[in-house]
Amino acid sequence: VSFGYENVSPEEKTRRVGEVFSSVAKKYDIMNDAMSFGMHRGWKDRFVKRVKPQAGENILDMAGGTGDIAFRMADRGANITVADINQEMLDVGAERAIERDEAEGAGSLVFSQQNAEEVSFASNSFDAYTIVFGIRNVTHKEKALKEALRVLRPGGRFYCMEFSVTDWSGFREIYDLYSMHIMPRMGQVIAGDTESYRYLAESIRKFPRAPQFEAMIRDAGFVNTKAEIILGGAVAIHSGWKV
Ligand code: SAM
Hints:
InterPro entries: SAM-dependent_MTases_sf (IPR029063), UbiE/COQ5_MeTrFase (IPR004033), UbiE/COQ5_MeTrFase_CS (IPR023576). The chain has helices at 10-24, 28-35, 39-51, 68-74, 87-99, 141-151, 171-191, 194-206, 210-219; strands at 58-62, 79-84, 109-113, 126-132, 152-163, 223-230, 235-241.
């Protein structure tokens, strides 16, 4: 995989992002633990607590990858459609779904290959839409937000968790050093893949800070938007409603 993707066409960017996730799929879960020092588990628990999935609800987990968010929501009884552009990530998710210990009364899980920019589901068909650490990889983010709004029913809710740059100086310098130098090395050692992890670190630095991204969510047509800041903005949980 080679980068410098800001100089390539949108189609080429989407293709390269595809290559990144095909390359990392098998090691994705181990790498998440290693690179976030296990913290991603706590953030994901917190995220699902905010979404408050209810038994019987239909939730679309976009960019759902290997199922971390979907499993947590299904355990609360919601019916989850796990959508992702990358079939290899979904395959790992489906394998995990077969192996996992389901909570009593767990909801159903369906895996579906989808591009967030152009979703094949009918309008007004989901109670909630979630996207976790996924939207920064989408080439046309505005399109994805519009699609999220379309597939939600009126009264439906949108929740997104994403990385960005932290406003805490000191932490920012350490984080930069870590993401630019250590993350790609860890990628090399654990997954034999430096470039994919360099891309992933770079995409975090480029993602808009919480106030700008919240404005994008509002511009797409969501109301009552909110941003919950974690670690000075290194992680943010965004939400909004369709009326
Ligand atoms: N949500 C999962 C989690 O938190 O563990 C997976 C996050 S992973 C960092 C990002 C995912 O976004 C990958 O599985 C990738 O294939 C997916 N993705 C990237 N671009 C996408 C697009 N345009 N539409 C749907 N999924 C996309």
